[in-house]
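Incident log, entry 3
Record: AraC family transcriptional regulator (549 residues)
Problem: checksum mismatch between cached and fresh output.
Input:
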Amino acid sequence: MTKKYLLIIWVCLQYNAYAQQNIFVIPDSLSTKSYEYFSNNILYEEKDSINERLYAQSWLAKAKREKNFGQMTQSYKALIYTSDNKLQLKYADSMLTAAKRTADMELIGSVYMTKGIVQYDLKEHMNALDSYLMADEYISKTNNHYLIYKVKYVIAQVKYYLGFYDEATTLFQECVNYFKEKNDRAYLNSLHSLGLCYSRTSKYKLCSQINQTGLSEGLRLKNLEMEPYFIHSEGVNQYFKHNYADAIKKLTKTLPVVIDNKDFINETTAYFYIGKSYWAQKLQEKALPYLKKIDEAFQKQKYIRPHLREAYEILIDYYQQRNDKVLELYYVKALLEVDQVLLKDYKYLSGKIHKEYDTKKLLERQRNIEQYWTVVACIIITIMTAIIVVLVLRHYKNKRLFEELMNRKPETPQSLVSNNTGKETELDINPEVIAAILKNLEKFERNKKYLEKDMSLAKMASLLNTNVKYASKIIARYRNKGTVDYITHLKIDHIIELLKNENKYRNYTNKALGEESGFGSTQIFTRAFNNRTGLSPTYFISKLKSQQH
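Fresh output:
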């Protein structure tokens, strides 16, 4: 235990020395460790973890000593995720400097994206978007689809924040499709964001479906981290569907989780829609504390989402109606401050994302237009070739099946019985009863009773003068078929013989042929004919007619 405390004190002293002098000495116990060792021992699970920060500092020191800029980049990334907010941007800048020394486009793009994420978490949205756009600039020149879709995801987040929901929806849909097989958490995050977009565009049914999919997929993937966020999203969605009690219930349920996660954006969003749900139910006194929390969060964080500003409008109107000039004036001034923040942030982001991101995508499409028609031509040729091959193969297959069908003899009771000699004892039925049923079955076939519509096992059993159980056993044993197949095959074989031998039936429609053979509908008849012969009735008849000439 004493050794453990000494290690912690030593690490703290070393970290303090680094902060003051930018000097770090790798402890002897870690001096011979590999880069892989450091990477594997940093789990990114807890901020300000002393042990993990020690590994990250040792990793960085080793990389600096060996002038390995790629490893320096990775170690700075580890320091970002093991340090508090004050140091994260400093390490992000150092990480970017190291990455640029590698001249690796993929690595540099990835680092810009990491820096953007740090800036986004710190609510520096203008700087974050600049970093995302730089990430896109580098990563779009690589073949790393995973990183390309990560950039799409963060750009979509900015579009969602700006209120460009249709554009964000398209990007999030692409991310859902891509990440589904690549990364469970990214897949669930994309589903969640897609649901939010649907809710914002009044597609509430789709939002509910996405939220339910997210919950089900989380269970399937054994990843429940996003579960409260899907419930949170559905709570907001229920507000828009005017199910206010359910909205309050779901959002209240998720509040402890988002508060524990220090997710003040979703915390304030929950307060806002709980407040609005009470307000919609004319429970104003219950609504006010929740709506006021929007301003409390803004005064603390100096950050707000555009849709939350409505809380101020509600509060201003409320206190105006009650002639409370003090509170009315307070919320008017607060709203003016909110609008200044939104105008500055929103205007910059809106112009930037359309001018630099969307224009860039259009230019890329323009550069690829010459290749487009070549690709289209190749695809068309390939498809046409495949169609021709399929048609040729189908022609020869149908020709072979037709010849087999023309040469096939109808099944007779005698041919079927000959294969079942000596099986009477296996049925556990009196041989005399079997003989009587078989005699009635031959009569049933000879009189073509199977052509009656709605012929069922119960109806057959009655005609055979027996019960359903015995009838099905006898048919299975002596006709080698289930009852449905037995009746269906008799009907189809009957039609085949008519078509072969009597020209007039070749002019019948499929509907008339189906009625002639006792089928309930044309569709059932054509499907049964195809299953029995491998051919359509139309093809079979056309081949028969062609043989007449």
